[in-house]
Amino acid sequence: MCRLLQVSHGGFYAWVGRTRRHGALANERLSGLIGQCFAQSHRRRGSPRVWRDLIAWVETVGEIRVARPMKRAWLKACRKRRRWPAGVGVRQEHCIAANVLDRTFVAVGANRKCVADFTYRWTTEGWLYLAVVIDLCSRTVVGLSTH
Prior knowledge:
- The protein is an alpha+beta fold.
- It has 2 domains: 2-72, no CATH class; 93-146, no CATH class.
- 35% of the residues lie in helices and 18% in strands.
- The chain is built from 5 helices and 3 strands.
- A hairpin with a 5-residue loop joins β2 and β3.
- The mean pLDDT is 85.
């Protein structure tokens, strides 16, 4: 076998008997922790978040030292699918407000008739809900709320 690998007998047996380096053992341990953290997150976290988790686990490690093994092992975060906000299902009759205006959107005086609506938009922090109340006579916004 030494002839096939073109190495000396002494060099081969020295390599077999050599103990593992401290750095290699630390890298293997770190790779195991990275894999464990990545699996616990259901493959949703990239290297910055895995690094923050390892810091929380009281591991002193740099962000690049986490990113390189993840790239080498093809551990890439899967993006969570963005969905529209789920409705609560079919509304009961007693939950629906009565139609007081009956589609007559003309008001004779201020603060007599108001209409309201809401909408939602996706932001980087999640869904933003906006509710607005408008006076029909002056067409001004009486109130609004975001959540």
